[in-house]
Write a structure and sequence with these properties.
It is a single chain. This protein has helices at 2-14, 141-147, 228-236, 257-263, 301-315, 350-358, 460-474, 484-500, and strands at 16-23, 31-37, 43-44, 50-51, 68-71, 73-79, 82-89, 97-103, 110-115, 127-134, 152-159, 162-163, 176-180, 183-194, 197-202, 246-249, 268-272, 322-324, 339-343, 362-365, 369-377, 380-388, 393-400, 403-408, 416-420, 423-424, 430-437, 444-448, 451-452. The protein is α+β, with helices and mostly antiparallel strands. It has four domains: 14-115, Immunoglobulin-like (Sandwich); 120-354; 367-454, Immunoglobulin-like; 460-500. The strands form four sheets. It has a 16-stranded mixed β-sheet that branches. Strands 2, 3, 4, 5, 7 and 8 form a six-stranded antiparallel β-sheet that branches. α4 (257-263) crosses α8 and α7 packs antiparallel against α8 (484-500). The longest helix is centred in the C-terminal third of the chain and has 17 residues, at 484-500.
Length: 501
């Protein structure tokens, strides 16, 4: 016992506190997200901070899950002697700051001052950020939006069996909540995530009853009936003005995505979705339609497949704006890691932001940013393109009808690229821009929405692709002949067969 008490006292004697203060470029205290890495790879948390990993979520080993959010300052108590690496982040637009400090054996507190500086300020250019997929508690979200320098968070309070409102009515007067000078969140949002896919409905006026759909004991991803399209139609029957409810199709790889596109066209679709993680790519389609891994291989395999599907829908003439969401709280991502920027004239309102998405004034990013200003003259594309990043740029590309029509490789080490455009795209019906930042463990991508071109595109191959997809759906034993889903599939096939002619 005496040996134990001696060891305990010795450990306490040699332990030190790391006292961290974070300030912005003007020297003002600011909320931020920190990672504290100690000897042997162990990560440490500050007392009283907001942990990035929710207690009920597994620890996948991602460094993000060992991070935490603070408001201005934090104390990491009683760390053993050794070298510590402290990383501070304040969202996409700020440089990532790293400091290395030493906790000495004399137990003296270590004062750590960290100053964060922006490498770009999108709001000054009229671009406002949002994350369409947040699974964090309402009470945590204000601090998270501030720490990640995110303007809008779409928080899901209804998700399959979860409904924080219970049997009560949804908030009507305060479904949009301002949480800071430049921060807002919405709280009447539902996600129907079952066998066919994930359908996100923003700005609901009433609960959909999703929590009663899947019987206890049945995994939600094994539930196909009733089909998700019925809940989309139910939500749309209760309008909130001209924009809401807003239907965001969470990702194009879901089995019933072609169903929704044909019969219940979404307002947006998740191109930069939750498979893009801060420290890895989620390399698989979950229970969605699997990709051809020989064609779509390597680190960019899932990303290229997802882009390929979006481009096929655009080829059909369905220029649905792309969206972005990180699924923080479920996937190992900060709020706003995958974010979308919307160009606005004047100040921010939630309605103006969604109107901007609807008009196609969007740019998605989890790293670099991209400014694409096309000018269409007859069949020619003029204008300019500009890319910037806090890390080295890898490539910048123009894509028309799914084909790369022009590509640039910025000089080694370059973080800024600009070019003028002069292309003959008379045979194409849309064009978009994308760029990549160099990264060995994940895909850092920026992508614009599509710009319509006057050309006509032969859409028959794209229609055939989705017709064969739906025919495969018809063979799903979870949706047998005569089921509600099977009857919907017959309607969908008629749409794609007509487009094949």
């Amino acid at each position: 016992m005496r040996l134990y008490l001696f060891a305990l006292c010795a450990a306490s004697l040699f332990a030190a506190d790391l006292r961290v203060t974070v300030r912005d470029e003007r020297g003002r205290p600011v909320a931020a997200r920190l990672e504290v890495h100690g000897p042997g790879g162990k990560m440490y948390q500050a007392e009283g901070s907001l942990a990035s990993r929710r207690a009920e979520r597994p620890d996948t080993g991602s460094p993000y899950l060992g991070s935490f959010v603070i408001k201005e300052a934090a104390v990491v108590k009683n760390v053993p002697p050794g070298r510590y690496q402290i990383l501070a982040e304040h969202g996409l637009e700020y440089e990532r700051v790293e400091r290395e400090v030493e906790a000495r054996e004399d137990g003296q507190p270590v004062q750590v001052e960290m100053q964060l500086r922006p490498w770009i300020r999108m709001r000054e250019r009229g671009w406002w950020s949002g994350d369409m997929h947040v699974h964090r508690p309402i009470e945590e979200t204000p601090l998270l939006l501030e720490a990640e320098d995110l303007n809008l968070g779409v928080v899901f309070t209804m998700w399959n069996r979860q409904n924080i409102w219970g049997a009560g009515a949804l908030p009507r007067a305060d479904w949009v909540r301002k949480t800071g000078e430049h921060h807002w969140m919405t709280v009447t949002n539902a996600e129907d995530e079952r066998g066919g896919g994930a359908w996100m409905l923003h700005g609901l006026t009433a609960s959909l009853g999703l929590e009663r759909v899947v019987p206890e004991g049945q995994p939600t991803n094994q539930s196909w009936d009733p089909p998700g399209i019925e809940f989309v139609q139910q939500a749309r029957a209760a309008k909130r003005g001209s924009l809401f409810p807003w239907f965001d199709l969470e990702k194009p790889t879901w089995w019933e995505a072609p169903v929704m596109m044909a019969l219940a066209r979404p307002d947006s679709m998740g191109l930069l979705n939750n498979h893009y993680d801060q420290y890895a790519m989620y390399d698989g389609e979950a229970w969605g339609r699997k990709r051809d891994t020989a064609r779509f291989a390597g680190l960019h395999g899932y990303s290229d497949y997802s882009l390929h599907l979006m481009y096929r829908y655009w080829n059909l003439g369905w220029l649905v704006p792309p969206s972005a969401g990180a699924a923080s709280g479920v996937l190992p991502n900060p709020v706003g890691y995958n974010r979308m920027y919307v160009k606005l004239d004047g100040g921010f309102t939630v309605e103006k932001w969604y109107e901007g998405v609807k008009a196609g004034r969007v740019m998605l990013s989890n790293g670099p940013v991209l400014f694409f200003e096309p000018k269409i003259r007859g069949g020619r594309l003029a204008g300019r393109i500009e890319a910037q990043a806090r890390d080295e740029l890898e490539r910048v590309e123009l894509v028309a009808n799914g084909k790369i029509v022009q590509s640039w490789r910025p000089a080694a080490g370059s973080k800024h690229f600009r070019a003028s455009l002069n292309l003959n795209l008379a045979a194409h019906s849309w064009v978009a821009a994308r760029c990549y930042a160099k990264n060995d463990v994940t895909v850092r991508l920026a992508h614009t929405g599509p710009t319509a071109l006057p050309g006509r595109w032969d859409r028959r191959d794209d229609a055939r692709y989705f017709r064969e997809w739906v025919e495969e759906l018809q063979r799903n034993p979870k949706t047998p002949a005569g089921s509600r889903a099977a009857r919907v599939y017959e309607q969908v096939l008629a749409v794609y067969r007509e487009m094949e002619k």
